[in-house]
Design goal:
The chain has 15 helices and 14 strands. The chain is α/β, with parallel strands linked by helices and 393 residues long. The radius of gyration is 22 Å and the shape is globular.
């Protein structure tokens, strides 16, 4: 029985065919990059076991059912992913490492919460839910269907180019204004939420680009909002603000009209980021890779093809915000490497006043992503003017 792998990290990375006629990603297995020896052995053991099951070469007396084989492989893959996460300092577990154990009392079944199957923070909870959500989406709209739908997708706009133009024109960081109804920490931010009207107001107010939340359960967003904004005639390039864990989401966002995609370093191993950046380039999309600390920044800077990095000032453990995080990550040798490579840096979270904008600009950002402080304003255009201390349109 074939095992389904949802990302490049599950066993090995994949490379993308460069066939001129290929508008979409075609993945061919290649060997994983060198890691610790026991991680390589684990990857090999999973592949070897799969081969044994296919050709019947398992030892006599070692017969197992397909179901047991899948469970064994799932456990080994989970161990492999855990090793990758540990090696790279990834804070967010992609799925419950122990699974939800079943317990029985008489005729009743219940699941016992424990450290292994309980999310450690809201981002981890979102990612675990997204894993199940994407699996359901993929059954309804397989990748083969999305590839056909891409032929009718609207053309991609230059996301980074729009940010640079705004920065050059105004002398201020280019604004990525966020279309956002709610958040897990704040609840509903804007009751009378009309995504298209908000997007148009942002554009009139001088936003260079827009970020559109597409997560439904935690942010009350949707891919339909993204599509509606794109079809409305708004000219600002659109960032799909989604919790990406699977390449399928990238294709779906492109079908819906996205010009850029968010990738979160706290969630994705290096192999996944590199693989997804290649897919985005193939589709013409910009990738905004988000980091939270020095280790994540160093990981991202070691990946080829990175052009746009977002520094999120929110602590993933406590959800407290400190805009000093932006300055810390752009100081010294690290900041010099960023400037030499021409990487555009975006400041994210905790930006509410002209003083906040000036602080992160002095630290080295060329763009800012802002949602709450302007979307909750009765007049989003005026909210943008108040954020920057003047009109930027």
């Amino acid at each position: 029985m074939a095992m389904r792998a949802s990302s490049a990290s599950t066993l090995c990375a994949h490379k993308i065919s460069s066939d001129k006629s290929l508008k979409y990603a075609s993945r061919k297995p290649i060997s994983c990059r060198p890691m610790q020896s026991h991680v390589k052995q684990l990857s090999f053991s999973v592949q070897a076991r799969e081969m044994e099951l296919k050709d019947g070469s398992a030892l006599p007396g070692d017969e197992i059912s397909d179901g047991d084989a899948l469970k064994a492989k799932d456990r080994e893959i989970g161990m492999f992913q855990k090793e990758v996460a540990s090696t790279q300092g990834i804070k967010i577990r992609r799925r419950p490492p122990t699974g939800p154990p079943l317990h029985y009392v008489g005729p009743f079944e219940f699941r016992l919460q424990n450290e292994g199957n309980t999310p450690r923070n809201i981002l981890e909870e979102i990612v675990w839910n997204k894993d199940k959500e994407v699996s359901q989406f993929k059954e309804r709209k397989p990748l083969s269907l999305l590839r056909k739908m891409l032929e009718k997708a609207p053309p991609v706009r230059n996301f980074i180019g729009a940010l640079k133009e705004a920065n050059s024109r105004t002398g201020l960081p280019g604004l990525i204004a966020e279309v956002k109804k709610a958040s897990p920490s704040k609840g509903v931010i804007k009751e009378d939420f009309d995504p298209v009207q908000i997007a148009k107001a942002y554009e009139r107010g001088g936003a260079a680009c827009l970020s559109v939340l597409t997560d439904e359960k935690y942010f009350q967003g949707s891919f339909e909002n993204l599509e509606a904004i794109r079809r409305s005639g708004v000219q600002c390039p659109l960032l799909c603000k989604e919790f990406v864990i699977d390449a399928w989401q990238i294709y779906y966002a492109r079908v819906k009209g996205a010009d850029a995609i968010l990738l979160i370093a706290a969630v994705l191993p290096d192999m996944d980021i590199e693989y997804m950046v290649k897919i985005c380039k193939l589709l013409g999309l910009t990738t905004l890779v988000e980091v939270h600390d020095e280790k994540e920044m160093d990981r991202v800077l070691a990946i080829n093809g990175i052009e746009l990095v977002g520094i999120n000032n929110r602590d993933l453990g406590t959800f407290t915000v400190d805009i000093g995080n932006t300055k810390k990550l752009l100081e010294g040798e690290r900041g010099e490497r960023i400037r030499q490579r021409g990487i555009t840096v975006v400041g994210e979270s905790g930006l509410f006043t002209p003083a906040d904008i000036a602080y992160v600009q002095e630290a080295g950002v060329k763009a800012v992503l802002v949602g709450e402080s302007i979307v909750k304003h009765k007049d989003p255009e005026e909210g943008i003017a108040q954020l920057f201390g003047k009109r930027i349109s």
